[in-house]
Amino acid sequence: MFPSQADMMRLAPELVLCAMGILIMVAEPFTGRAGRKVLDVLAALGAAGALAAIWLPAHNMGTAFSNLLRVDAFSVFIHAIVGAVALLVILAAPSYLEREGLPHGEFFALILFATAGMGVMASAQELITAFVGLEVSSISSYILASYRRDVPKSNEAAMKYFLLGSFATAFFLYGIALIYGGSGTTVLPHIDSAAAQVTLLTLGLALVFVGLAFKVAAAPFQLWTPDVYEGSPSPITALLSSAPKAAAFALFLRILITVEHANSLWFWAIWISAVVTMFVGNLTAAVQSNVKRMLAYSSVAHAGYILVAFAARNVIGTAAVLFYLAAYALMKVGAFTTLAWLGGTGEEFLDIDDYAGLASARPVSAACFSFFLLSLLGLPVTAGFLGKFYIFDAAVHAHLIWLAVLLGLNSIIGAYYYLRVIVAMYMREPKRTFNPEKIPFGVAAVLALAAVGTLYLGLFPSRVMGFAIQAAQYIK
Amino acid sequence: MHSSANHLLTILIFLPIAGAAALLLLRADDHVWTRRVALAAAIGELGVSLKLLWWFDSGTPGYQLEEVHNWIAYPLIRYHVGLDGISLFLILLTTVLTPIAILASWKSISQRVKGFFVCLLVLEAGVIGVFVSLDLFLFFVFWEVMLIPMYFLIGIWGHDRRIYAAVKFILYTMFGSILMLVGILWLYNRTGSFDLPLIQAMVQTSQLVLAPRTELLLFGAFFLAFAIKVPLFPFHTWLPDAHTEAPTAGSIMLAGVLLKMGTYGMLRFCLPLFPSAARTLAPEIAVLAIIGIIYGALVSLVQTDLKRLVAYSSVSHLGFVVLGIFAMSPASVQGALYQMVNHGISTGALFLLVGMLYDRRHTHDITEFGGLATPMPVLAAFFLFVTLSSIGLPMLNGFVGEFLILNGTFEHHAAWAIWATVGVILSALYLLWAYQRTFFGEVTKDKNRALPDADLRERSLLWAMAAMILFMGVASTTFTSKTENSVRLVLEQMQPAPAGQSVNAKVDEADECPPLTKADITGPVSKPSPATPVLKKVEATR
Q1: Helix A105-123 × helix A12-31 angle, to 10°
Q2: 10 Å Cβ neighbour count for B25?
Q3: Are A94 and A107 in contact (CB under 8 A)?
Q4: Is residue A360 within 8 angstroms of chain B, CB to CB?
Q5: Looking at CA atoms only, how far is residue B112 from chain A in angstroms?
Q6: What pTM was computed for the model?
């Protein structure tokens, strides 16, 4: 049976992404060295097209493919995040690939495929479908992590990511099997009513959560994060630290909210995991001297912040998660893009000492980087502040004052290491000579977009938060 | 809401930002025009702020010149600014000290000039925003935002240990403010609003009655943030470092206005929002304030670094302000308010003078000086004048503030006043002794013989400061008549509710009462009437 038109419309962003990915792979052999620009443009068009195609599901909400997918405001919101991240990464990547002498075709195709997988995760309301999305995105990411083939660190990153990621997906899959055994269905909204063997179901959900906790790098399953983020090419780190996390958190949230069993069971697990994740992420980040690794640990900490909003279990909490994911994606992509550009050939300059005195030689990059760091820190008029503000609000609303206070303490630890980079850039004398600042157009565009977006969300969050609340109510 | 047609306060917030933006358009190496534009912006700001005196109505105790716009839809956050007698002179203090700070750095800042003045102007905007915000969220935004320019001012243009000082400054302050954010949200979840006048009205009409423990915790969350900023003993350790390492302009702004944000916050938020917690904890806070007064003075006494000495003297002087606030008598609170402005001007002037010495000798070490009155008599004369004002010589500004505080405190708490008086004596001791070692006697170092005296720019700055010091010393009623009503209102709001009310007041232990919304409150909330009868009938307290 050929899928109906409505089904296709609800899958439109993924279709655009996959079509463009395939087109790039087909076109690559014919373009040669000179035609690489064509691939860049095709990839950007693919991501932009996918973003535009969100219009279709947004105006045709409902379930698709006999209940496998559920397109609602929630999934549209996540689609917008992952689509935007893909677009930004693709725009900034060409100069990086040129500098590192890496091929363009597979890179862009894999990014598009990964994004498609994340899109499926965001709308899936059936576990096997979610698994397919997860695998599509993961396998593309494994390859992308190892994209600097000649660099041992990149290979190490891919190997770790692959091994631990396989574990995670195995947990996830085993969990699905147990859930099916316990309830006879894998469609999320039916699980509660069909629950026959509660023990099996509980165990299955536990395993699914372990799998997802791996994906979002929540403690105690965060160990792979720093190595993978550090070893991957920086544009890919930008992608990995934001988009798959958004998709995995979306799936996490959907299961948690749709399946009543999960909801009641998991409060304390999430509470503890949130606290541990925040502290582990921040404390380890605070002692790093490699900026990229520091940002990797900081993204663990941010996963902890998001889990605080999970623990709140209210509409504000869900909306806060969505808002934070958007804010977080913007600032992380901005920060890693700056890092990709400042790192220099072979990503040589990643140590904090390499950034000493950067502000006088490269004022624009330093200002952008500082702005993203201040947003990650959570200072007002940035997206990061409002994101954190909403999480605080959700936590306090749910009477989780302690969790809010612990989140506050962690922000202070965070402040320490983010400020260290700013101190180096602005307040210390340079330890090396800098080339004059000539930011490539793509990178400049991405930095400008991310900075404007971060500022916009920080000053005028109402629109996006309005969408987030709407999405949070839909999923209820 | 009384939304006035004029936008004076908004202009005050955004004019320095516009000035900073204009600076960004200039070439980075065009130092001359950078300075001129910055000064023009600051003087324009001063001119606008003087209009406040014209518009201000001393007869109105509540907020004036209010302006309200919706800002964020969820949760409802409004751009709500306003002014009363408490904030009026703090705003003027800020707008007066900023041009002085700019002129003080006219020559001493030669590196990254543009960034320096941008930071200074953004700082001014942030501080004014703090003083005029009547929305808790807006207040918090300004409170945090102004940290960044100050952080850069210390960290980039400071002295040797500037990085340590800058990081310490920002981490300390952030630690306090993050708990305040939790407190603000807690309050929001109970009241459904971030609007300060609205919440004040709820407290007044007993529509918001917090359980004693909750109130203490909330009070603590706000108070800690302010106490760190003031800084109240034992949260003061960031201050000497920040002051010593900051450039002169940074010290002037830090001592002059930033510390006042802490005491202003206590007066604006801690007292009216959590009156019974404030009353309960007043003795403990007074003890800390007195320890601060005496400890700060004693530590000043043993300093060999002139700038550090002035910094510790701030701990002592601000202790007086906190004492005055928590003595809670009209005179003491008036005095505290007066002393905030005084301290801004006197200590600002002291830092200015110390900065002038530093420009000449590149040291703050008292032993490097000695007999400076011989090569620079004018500077020495001004230094003496400012020192005397800081000590509290009658006819000068410091006297009025200290006298009002001690007098007001003595009414109900004689012991507090007696202990605090020790600080007055000590302050004469350490300041005059330092003055003696620096300026009197023979010139001890040959380097100091040929030091140039104050030039025209420096003299005009010092004349301006001296004029203010004298004016505030002899014409204090000009000021107190404007602050009087607002102070009285705050203290009225502090009064315990009449017996019947407090017994019947609703106490909710678990905070489970549905949040009140704006619709629950009717009537003019910006000017809450303390006499509004309580209509709610509720169960007795435990």
Answers
A1: 170
A2: 8
A3: no
A4: yes
A5: 9
A6: 0.89
